[in-house]
Amino acid sequence: MITLRLDPALEQQVNLTAQNLGITRSEFVRKSIVNYIQNQKSKSAWEIGQGLFGKYSSGQANLSSDRKEILKDRVRAKRGYE
């Protein structure tokens, strides 16, 4: 069992919404919590990390596909082979 303390305005909204839907306040709160949890689970990896992706851009679009060749070129340049 959970007890909630709501500010008067939110409590009034809960009461009115539950009444309009023809369900009890408890049922409305239960359904709201279930809906919230389901929406949290449905986020994709992209949505979760969206603020991080591309944040440190190098300007090179081929880094993942040509990573081995790029690394070889850097090592060769560092050792003076180029």
Give structural notes.
- The mean pLDDT is 89.
- The longest helix is centred in the middle third of the chain and has 17 residues, at 25-41.
- With 82 residues, the protein is mainly α.
- The protein has helices at residues 8-21, 25-41, 45-49, 67-79.
- It is rod-shaped and about 75 Å long.
- The chain has four helices and no strands.
Backbone shape: rod-shaped
- Structural class from helices and strands? mainly alpha
Tell me what portion of residues adopts beta-strand conformation: under 5%
The pLDDT mean sits at 89
End-to-end span in angstroms? 71 Å
**Helicity level, as a percent range?**
55-70%
Please write the string of helix (H) and strand (E) elements: HHHH
List the helices and strands and how they pair.
Elements: H1 8-21, H2 25-41, H3 45-49, H4 67-79
Helix pairs in contact: 1-2
Please outline what is shown here:
The protein is an all-alpha fold and 82 residues long.
Key phrases:
4 helices; 0% strand; 82 residues; single chain; mainly alpha
